[in-house]
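Lecture 7 notes: from sequence to structure.
We start with the chain below.
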Amino acid sequence: MGSLPNETFSGVEHRQQQIDLEDSSRTERTQWLINSPEPPTLWQELVSAARGSLLPRRTNNSSSSAMSFLQGLFPVLSWGRTYTASKFKDDLMAGLTLASLSIPQSIGYANLAKLDPQYGLYTSVVPPLIYALMGSSREIAIGPVAVVSMLLSSMVPNMVDPEADPTGYRRLVFTVTFFAGTFQAIFGLFRLGFIVDFLSHAAIVGFMAGAAIVIGLQQLKGLFGMSHFTTKTDVVSVLGSVFKSVPHEWYPLNFVLGCSFLVFLLAARFIGRRNKKLFWFPAIAPLLSVILSTLIVYLSKADKHGVKIVKHIKGGLNPSSLHQLQFKGPHVAESAKVGLISAVIALTEAIAVGRSFAAIKGYHLDGNKEMMAMGFMNLAGSLTSCYVATGSFSRTAVNFSAGCQTVVSNIVMAITVLLALELFTRLLYYTPVAILASIILSALPGLIDINEAYYIWKVDKLDFLACIGAFLGVLFASVEIGLLAAVTISFAKILLNSIRPAVELLGRLPRTDMFCEVDQYPMAIKTPGILTLRVNSGLLCFANANFLRERVMRYVKDGNGTEETAKDTVQILIIDMSSKFNHLTDPKSTKTTTRP
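Predicted structure tokens for the same chain:
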């Protein structure tokens, strides 16, 4: 009995402490709301973004922080610790196989970019070495590619004619490469990878297909042995130039030699696809074609009978091109514009290729780090007589099939190309130009994906419109017009989906608790008196508020769409807003209720 007052007093004291604690918490919340801290400045946000790109985790230890910084900038410091001799054996074989494909393709792509052959080989030396230090993809093969080469050959001649002033043209190409590397590094440093996403997958499919056809038509110049050819890239101008030049400049030996080896290359490609164990055959087929055709021309003196040959290829190490960069004059702004377009196209292709093979191997590819690696390798390339390099899908597939383990295969390839520059360039004097054209033509089918275009048509008609816009723009106008059409249609789709989101009538599937769109699932059951709608948009704002109100009220006035339901019988309105909160849940959970 004597302890009862003490217990009562303790309970009162405890409640008083709780009340005081709640009052202090309320006062503290009020102070935080009234005297809230200033938001970070723009400079602080930029520094934070750069630190996040270069320093993935923050530690209190200065030595660990420095090591983390270096590992973020040079991933080779992370995986290099566990590198073994067995991995090097696989990378060595993959690199040698890759080099056998890279050497003839690099010469052909340099010809496509309207540069001397050695510049394609230079581009297969320095950029792969830089990427091997800074890149995070294990399978991607770095070097010149057809689309970027065509892009440069179609846009840079608008500033300087490569035939009238080859030196000035080459300087502008190096300047464009410098700007491309600068933009790529900035994109990665400040996490601006979303800029690349403005080119949707559908737009890239259409752009690649149109570019492949344009590139193929331009190879008719080398296949027929023509000397005069149009500098335009649209299909009408190219075909017109072909029909005008063929009666006067057609050399049958060029055509026969080129077509013969083109059939051989396509057959090798077919055999490699049918039998995965023979992956090496299509990889070395271009090099075999170059060797055999060069011997045929040399032994038969075919160059005396109209067969056009490569002639002199300058050998040796990459010369410095720092003094050739042009940052003054009337073409600086245009060079920067071409550099920006080249940077976006090169990044889009490289990241798409890298992520595809990373998904197969089961690891994640950091897009921002890839952008930084691409940027620094092109910056270094612009200083060492290289033009814009990126990841090649065909060579990456060969690298993957050859069993590469790390980017050391790129180092092996670069060293092999460098040895070829030092020792074997004189042997390529009699290489026919028609063979380079056939090598490029044999690589183009991989850029045209008809099945993917058909799938885009089935999934989203507006995406297909962007695909067709890019395809027709590149084919009948120019590269700039094709890209502009694709980006414009993609923006229009985003705005249309934001301003006029779809409002769908839902019904319950028989014998389930799943609600799906009535238009897609006619068997869905609509409950009398209950109207169930779904807003297919994660963005609700002033731009679409009136539209959504009108659509919902129209459904309410019309009932749930059944004849036996009167206009005034809707008693309950249910609006499914799950799409608004999909970023908080698993997006795959609503897969059964979306359109195919």
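Points to note: The longest helix spans residues 4-34. The first strand starts at residue 141 and ends at 143.
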